[in-house]
Specification:
The protein is α/β, with parallel strands linked by helices. The chain has a domain of 240 residues: Metallo-beta-lactamase, Chain A, CATH 3.60.15.10. Helices cover 24% and strands 19% of the residues. It contains 8 helices and 14 strands. Strands 6-5-4-3-2-1-14 form a 7-stranded mixed β-sheet, with no helix packed on it. A 7-stranded mixed β-sheet has the order 7-8-9-10-11-12-13, covered by helices on one side. The N and C termini lie far apart (67 Å).
Length: 344
């Protein structure tokens, strides 16, 4: 009995120690309407479910099917630059997109790793290869990070990018210190509402998202999460990052819309009682498309990592159903193919 208790206590101590080591440093800064001096919060007060909700979900999970299927071949190398007001988007995987316009190459939430996890042997595993080989990337000028979750901030990929391309990196508040501790320097932190001049024809605005943050057991909401708007002469481009639904999108549309393009998440939304505060459903993604007054939307956050209970084909199927219900053509909200460049 004593030995069993000792083993149990050792396991608990190991979990706590690992959770502490994995936790990101806490942001230190002035209070605001979404930061109380210790934790960030969503506009309107929406919160991710707590530990009790996690256990309820895990005990009653009904995973949708994720058949293996044939792995697609990587797409061809994209053009080195897209000049002027032309706009080209390449879906790589999950929420990793290559945005090319005004002679700049911008990557969102870049992930080339085989797992999105602190461990190489466990955690969500890649189900489809990246749409572009890393070596086929054009020179990357800028990286936009929406928050610090493993499926959006992949240290291995960021280190490769820093070594090969030395891009400028934009992050929400608190993420810069974590990157610097991991050897990635020079990031620019942004709060909601801040605008970063990139060059004479591009400014990047940090806008709210409805989500949460954390990489370990002791850093829940210790750093900020966000979306970005690329403010361009030819029309703005909105990258929503990872988000639940709320009134923030009508506000973003009012300030920065109409959008030439919106990149919106559609996956990891089931069961909705658990996921809704932090992940939009396809129907809610269509509503965001309308809220931000997007001329064109492109889907992300689906088909690469099995993060929730929706099956592999559920996000695009439900998206097409939602578009029909709103009397919108499927062409208004594209479900992209990995590696295939789309000229907007």
């Amino acid at each position: 009995m004593i030995w069993s208790l000792a083993v149990f206590l050792l396991i608990v101590a190991g979990v706590v120690a690992t959770g502490y080591v994995l936790s990101a440093p806490r942001y230190r800064g002035g209070r605001s309407d979404h930061f109380d001096g210790r934790r960030f919060r969503n506009a309107g007060g929406a919160r991710a479910r707590g530990l009790g909700g996690v256990f309820r979900w895990m005990l009653g999970r009904r995973r949708g099917a994720w058949p293996a299927g044939e792995a697609p071949s990587p797409g061809p190398p994209p053009p080195e630059r897209v000049m002027g007001g032309d706009l080209r988007i390449t879906f790589i995987n999950h929420t990793t997109f290559l945005i090319q316009t005004e002679g700049l190459n911008i990557l969102t939430d870049p992930v080339w790793s085989g797992r999105v996890s602190p461990f190489s042997f466990a955690g969500p595993k890649r189900r489809r290869p990246p749409g572009l080989r890393f070596r086929d990337l054009p020179p990357i000028d800028m990286v936009l990070l929406s928050h610090n979750h493993y499926d959006h901030l992949d240290l291995s990929t960021l280190r490769r990018l820093a070594y090969a391309h030395r891009p400028r990196i934009a992050t929400p508040l608190g993420v810069r210190q974590f990157l610097e501790e991991k050897g990635i320097s020079g990031a620019t932190e942004m709060d909601w509402g801040k605008v970063l001049p990139v060059h004479e024809r591009l400014r990047i605005a940090c806008v709210p998202a409805q989500h949460f943050s954390g990489r370990g057991l002791f850093d829940r909401d210790a750093t900020l999460w966000c979306g970005y708007v690329l403010v361009l002469p030819g029309g703005n481009v909105y990258f929503a990052g990872d988000t639940g639904y709320g009134p923030i999108f009508a506000s973003i549309g009012g300030q920065y819309g109409p959008m030439r393009l919106a990149i919106l998440p559609i996956g990891a939304y089931k069961p909705e009682w658990f996921m809704a505060p932090i992940h939009v459903s396809p129907a809610q993604a269509v509503q965001i498309h309308l809220d931000v007054r997007a001329a064109q939307s492109i889907a992300g956050h689906f088909g690469t990592f099995q993060l929730a209970d929706d099956g592999k084909t559920a996000p695009p199927d439900d998206l097409h159903r939602a578009l029909r219900e709103k009397n919108l053509p499927e062409s208004a909200f594209i479900v992209p193919e990995e590696g295939k460049g789309i000229d907007i």
